[in-house]
Amino acid sequence: MRPEDARYSETHEWVRANDKKKEASIGITDYAVKQLSDLVHLELTPKVGDSIEPGAPFGEIESVKTVADLVAPIGGQVIAVNEDLVENVDTLKTDAFDDGWMIKVKYSESKDLDELMTAKEYKEFLDSLEEEKEEENEKVDDDDFM
Question: Rounded to whole angstroms, how far apart are CA atoms 61 and 136?
Fold first, then answer.
């Protein structure tokens, strides 16, 4: 279940922000975890105190299928890195949104959050991706008979 209080990126990262403290947790969505399938390795590159920019990579996640960059949906100063998750990447399969946070940042620009999707918008985005996949599969099936 995706949290309603989170914001989401098109690259399937989530952000849960505390506007009073100007702090946010960042991770990847359950959809991303399912797409990656069998996770084998997680690398989080920032250290506490580092600054990250929106759109910049903050690590990689590897599955048996692929290696994917983790992209910062917002910028800020890193205040925590979830080393427990690095040691036990399978946590993402059961809890992508709570124990599955990857980094926490102190941010100054709320506008970065405003550019992300709400839970409802993200669900609509995922629905459109699934429709595109179905159309592509139908096209492939049609091509098989031609």
Answer: 26
CATH of domain 7-144: 2.40.50.100
Please give the Cα distance from 60 to 32 (Å, whole number).
13
Interatomic CA distance for residues 26 and 16, integer angstroms: 7
pLDDT at 134 over 90: no
Among 51, 54, 104, 60, smallest CA distance to 82 is for: 104
- CA 42 to CA 36: how far, in whole Å? 12
Tens digits of residue pLDDT in 10-21: 999 999 999 999
CB atoms within 10 A of CB 41: 11
pLDDT tens digits along 36-67: 989 999 999 999 999 999 999 999 999 999 99
Residue 132 CB neighbour total at 10 angstroms: 10
Domain ranges of the chain: 7-144
Question: Whole-prediction pTM value?
Answer: 0.89
